[in-house]
């Protein structure tokens, strides 16, 4: 009769369990992976499959007993690191959506807002459009593979242990959050300059020809120029998104 001891079962399950928890935490908050259209069973199965495939590179993983007091600390650490990775990637999308909010404010389209069930908030049409473009770029530049590689590489920088606070202190996510506003401003800067020039031109026209109803003419002109400007500057969005993604991934890459 074949029998297994508890130590043997722990030695088999521990190298898979902790990566599985960290990857599942990433899938719960990371863009694209956390879509409600993806069934929870599919997320769990994909997380287990990725954790199983990652065993080829995750060597010398510590064996932590599931009954010991350090198991709770290990669970908290895996969930915290996984949520931090997903949150860092979400900041990239937030920067692009914030740029869309700024552009929509300059165009006068921020009144065209609707409820977004994914973020549970009111989102303007331009911000939602930029968010959809960022999602498409995320898939095109293999952002999903970059996220999975970040999770695997995070085990080298943040190995499995019971100290979750030490890992969170090393991530320095506040720096990524600080770069959110500056990155959004740089993305929206061409459109801001273009629409500012249009508004200055309309202001000069209103002074030269006071009889012209500038409110009736200004909105269609601003809207038309804004749409043309978005069409012209949209191909340049790839490089900022790729740069922001690389900054987010570098937070969890092993230090050389």
Helix and strand arrangement:
Blueprint: H1 6-29, H2 40-53, H3 70-107, E1 113-116, E2 121-124, H4 125-140, H5 143-157, H6 164-171, H7 173-208, H8 214-233, H9 238-250
Antiparallel strand pairs: 1-2
Helix pairs in contact: 1-2, 1-3, 1-5, 3-4, 3-5, 3-6, 3-7, 3-9, 5-9, 7-8
In percent terms, what proportion of residues is strand? under 5%
Low-confidence stretches: none
User: Percentage of helical residues?
Assistant: over 70%
Q: What is the general shape?
A: elongated
Count, helices: 9
Helix/strand order, N-terminal first: HHHEEHHHHHH
Biggest sheet: strands side by side, in what order?
1-2
| Content-based structural category | mainly alpha
Number of strands: 2
Cα separation of the termini? 49 Å
Mean pLDDT: 80
Describe what this molecule looks like in 3D.
This protein is mainly α and 256 residues long. It is 72% helix and 3% strand. It has nine helices and two strands. It has helices spanning 6-29, 40-53, 70-107, 125-140, 143-157, 164-171, 173-208, 214-233, 238-250, and strands at residues 113-116, 121-124. It has a two-stranded antiparallel ribbon with strand order 1-2. β1 and β2 form a beta hairpin. α1 (6-29) crosses α5, α3 (70-107) packs parallel to α6 (164-171) and α5 packs parallel to α9 (238-250). The longest helix has 38 residues, at 70-107. The radius of gyration is 24 Å and the shape is elongated. The mean pLDDT is 80.
């Amino acid at each position: 009769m074949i029998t297994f001891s508890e130590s043997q079962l722990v030695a088999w399950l521990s190298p898979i369990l902790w990566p599985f928890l960290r990857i599942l935490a990433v899938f719960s908050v990371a863009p694209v992976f956390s879509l409600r259209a993806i069934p929870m069973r599919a997320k769990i199965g994909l997380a287990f499959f990725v954790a199983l495939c990652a065993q080829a590179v995750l060597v010398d993983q510590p064996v932590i007993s599931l009954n010991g007091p350090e198991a709770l600390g290990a669970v908290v650490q895996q969930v915290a690191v996984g949520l931090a990775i997903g949150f860092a990637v979400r900041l990239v999308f937030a920067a692009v959506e914030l740029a869309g909010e700024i552009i929509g404010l300059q165009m006068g389209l921020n009144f065209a807002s609707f409820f977004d069930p994914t973020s549970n908030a009111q989102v303007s049409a331009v911000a939602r459009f930029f968010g959809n473009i960022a999602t498409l770029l995320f898939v095109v530049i293999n952002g999903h593979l970059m996220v999975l590689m970040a999770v695997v590489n995070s085990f080298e920088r943040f190995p499995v242990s019971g100290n979750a606070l030490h890992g969170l202190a090393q991530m320095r996510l506040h720096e990524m959050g600080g770069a959110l506003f500056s990155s959004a401003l740089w993305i929206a800067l061409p459109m801001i300059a273009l629409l500012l020039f249009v508004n200055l031109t309309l202001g000069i026209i209103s002074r030269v020809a006071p009889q012209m109803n500038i409110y009736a003419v200004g909105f269609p002109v601003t809207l038309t120029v804004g749409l043309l400007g978005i069409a012209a500057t949209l191909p340049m969005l790839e490089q900022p998104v790729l740069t922001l993604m690389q900054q987010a991934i570098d937070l969890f890459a092993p230090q050389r």
